[in-house]
Inverse folding.
């Protein structure tokens, strides 16, 4: 995991989305959470890099929490 969350819960933009996505995929990661402000960077990635990854985009910590703990929240 990389990035920054402010004291008020905002998820801030990161750099190196392509490199971090490739590294995550090589490590066997299936789900990634990116700052919503990095969505254009994700959209520019080649399809073979994105294939097999479930990407979520977060604006606040609450968005991250929902993805991370979705399995515990039930249907």
């Amino acid at each position: 995991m990389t990035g920054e969350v402010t004291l008020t819960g905002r998820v801030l933009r990161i750099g190196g989305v392509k490199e971090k996505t490739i590294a995550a995929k090589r490590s066997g990661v299936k789900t990634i959470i990116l700052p919503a402000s990095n969505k254009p960077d994700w959209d520019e990635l080649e399809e073979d890099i994105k294939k097999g990854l479930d990407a979520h985009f977060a604006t606040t910590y609450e968005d991250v929490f929902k993805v991370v703990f979705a399995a515990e929240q039930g249907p």
